[in-house]
Specification:
about 475 residues, GMP Synthetase, Chain A, domain 3, 3 domains, 14 helices, globular
Length: about 475
């Protein structure tokens, strides 16, 4: 938090006295007070009384939200702004390197997400929509706030972890509020899948109509489970691709209009010009893995990085002249569907063979008993790099030796011996962002150095880092 506030130099901070996460109280006002001495630009702190906790309020600087709103007029003339003026600055997670302040035009953010949400979700006036992302994540601002409210749909906003206080909390929310449209992350659906059909069948989820996703590659097996088991073959599963920098999903299907392909992120959407190119920036043949680029600007594409214009150019426009470089590996098939397999720095070369994390993870997830999987590439003296698998099991009684054997067999069967992992690490948890993305680069840093040097405040549960460190440092030789 401190790095972001120092970079942004806000005049006003809006916070709460405290919030809760997995049953634990998080003292937000206290955290704000701790960083204010390093941010001279701050003139006022507005505090929402969320849990009625004892906090320090500084006279002349700190104000209660309730007091200010009682005095405010219900009429507020909007500030007149040019459509391309900066409207939103959103920081990347910052788990590696310095967080980037991604700048978006406020007008474009609302208008284009109105269009994207309308067609990606097939929104109608009588919908009950739930974006399960945390309110602090851009995904929620895109889908649950701007997109949903611009379309006039009833919106569920959930505070806390979606698997707390019980693992079936996700199902409880859908059944209670009769949610028919859901936007979530692949990790959340894999978590539900791991609970089994016995838990699923306790709930009436017949209201479900569309489930859309973003955040990370969606393996075909989990796609099939979502469509066939969770949705009873009566829903549209709309996997999409987008980034903080795109403020929405320029690769997606139109719900109930675009034919579904399990695992694909859809097609280039309205106004987007997507291509896959080689290392020299030349388009590759259909079905060939390469670097994902955006060849033409569209309204929601980030305008710059906050106070770092040079970094903006070097990060996104220095790799392929005239195009936005997404730093993702993808392929486009003969039908124009895009398959995003992961970050380009998540791919690795094993004895000259280019492998992606997604294809190995998909093989691991097909093994009965595996709830979640994350694959990284680690150095090898002979092969250059080799895969390393992290796996969370949903049935501890299976036995790790037996499960390792099954995982290796499946990898050989689907990919080949070249993809066999250096080792398989079983863990009770994996580090994720609050939007559900597994932080593979963080896992790699822990394995290689035994520690984490970057900011981990953007994680859903920072305590998972210490758990992973303990497992690796106790059982494996760090190289």
């Amino acid at each position: 938090m401190k790095d972001r506030l120092v970079s942004f130099e806000p005049k006003i901070i809006v916070t709460t006295d405290a919030t809760t996460r997995r049953g634990n109280m998080v003292l937000l006002k206290e955290k704000v007070d701790a960083v204010i001495p390093d941010i001279p630009s701050i003139e006022a702190v507005i505090v929402v009384n969320r849990l009625n906790t004892e906090i320090n309020m500084k006279d002349g600087r700190d104000f209660w939200w309730e007091d200010l709103t009682k005095k405010a007029s219900i009429h507020c003339e909007p500030e007149r702004l040019e459509a391309n003026d900066y409207g939103i600055v959103f920081y990347t997670s910052g788990t590696t390197g310095k967080p980037k302040g991604v700048v978006h035009s406020g007008m474009a953010f609302v208008i284009q997400n109105y269009i994207y949400s309308k067609y990606h979700m097939d929104h109608h006036n009588d919908d009950v929509f739930w974006c399960s992302a945390d309110i602090g994540w851009l995904t929620m601002h895109i889908w649950g706030i701007a997109g949903a409210l611009a379309n006039g749909v009833t919106t569920v906003v959930y505070e806390g972890a979606i698997d707390y206080p019980t693992k079936d909390r996700f199902y409880q929310v859908i059944e209670k509020y009769r949610v028919n449209k859901v936007f979530t992350a692949p990790t959340a659906l894999r978590m539900l899948k791991s609970l089994g059909e016995k838990v699923l069948n306790q709930f009436d989820l017949s209201c479900l109509d569309v489930i859309s996703l973003v955040g990370e590659p969606f393996d075909p097996e989990s796609w099939q489970w979502t469509y066939e088991v969770l949705g009873k073959k009566k829903i549209c599963v709309n996997n999409t691709w987008g980034q903080t920098e795109t403020a929405g999903c320029p690769i997606a299907g139109a719900a109930w209009l675009t034919p579904m392909k399990p695992g694909s992120a859809g097609m280039q959407f309205l106004g987007a010009d997507i291509a896959v190119v080689d290392e020299e920036g030349k388009p590759v043949k259909p079905g060939t893995l390469g670097n994902l680029i955006i060849r033409k600007p569209f309204p929601m594409l980030c305008r710059t990085l906050w106070k770092e214009p040079e970094r903006y150019i070097s990060s996104y426009f220095s790799q392929v002249e005239g195009s936005y470089f997404a730093s993702d590996l993808a392929l486009i098939d003969e039908d124009g569907y895009v398959w995003v397999v992961g970050r380009s720095d998540d791919a690795f070369n094993v004895a000259g063979h280019r492998l992606s994390t997604m294809e190995i993870e998909s093989a691991v997830l097909e093994c009965e008993g595996v709830a979640e999987a994350a694959v990284i590439g680690v150095p090898d003296e002979i092969k250059g790099e080799v895969p390393l698998v992290f796996a969370r099991v949903n049935d501890p009684s299976l036995g790790t030796d037996h499960l390792k054997e099954k995982i290796n067999e499946r990898i050989i069967q689907l990919i080949g011996k070249i993809a066999l992992p250096k080792t398989i690490i079983f863990t009770e948890t994996l580090p994720k962002t609050v939007s559900g993305k597994i932080m593979r680069r963080l896992l790699k840093e822990i394995f290689l150095s035994g520690k984490v040097s970057g900011d981990i405040t953007g994680l859903e549960d920072p305590a998972t880092v210490a758990q992973i460190q303990t497992i690796i440092n106790e059982r494996y030789t760090v190289k």
